[in-house]
Amino acid sequence: MARSTGRPAKEPGRIKQLIDVFHMTRKADSALVWWMLLAFLVPVLVGVVLAVLSGAIITMITWILLGVVTGLLVALIVMNRRAERAAYNRMEGQQGAVGAVLRATLRRGWRGSEIPVAVNPRSRDAVYRAVGKPGVVLIAEGPKGRTQRLVDEERRKVVRVAPNVPVSVLRVGSDEGSIRLSQINRRLGRLKGKLTRAEVLAVSNRLESLGGGVPMPKGVDPTKLRPVRR
Length: 230
Prior knowledge:
Elements: H1 14-28, H2 32-54, H3 57-91, H4 97-105, E1 111-112, E2 118-119, E3 126-132, E4 135-141, H5 144-161, E5 167-172, H6 184-190, H7 197-209
């Protein structure tokens, strides 16, 4: 009988992770290679031109090396951006996608959960909640006509528990006035701060005490959306 070592499986190295991200992104984005190649060549060409103009051997080598290193960094940044875009495109329209985004990419200073605070049992439309310095933000996942009642009910709950806290609403979907998944953090960042850090924590704790969280709709596994480390 084989003896178990009890050691956890070793996580893949950084280079292996980058290679995996590249292959997964290339399957969804056929132009990835060309964009990365362009991002690499432009700094290299700039470095070569500056090297030729400098005249000194040591300076020439320095400029060329700097151009190569810069090109590699820019190419990785391009891959990171296009990998995130491909991930958002794969999740667009799936139930539970908003929760996955909140869990994986919610910015510092915000408190939110991948578990919706309200779900329509028939349509599986959902409402999520995030609390930050701008106040409470209700994020509706689904068309306005089907989610308006859920949003109104959650707004009343928030006002009852925290009457002086601003309540904003974002809608994620394809209808007019809605935003895309990739725009959630950008729109949250545009809201003006009204609360202190202590007040954010207090409001979040009050709302969590209400309970009402329901299981995330099947469709998206939040662990599958992870930001690519540069």
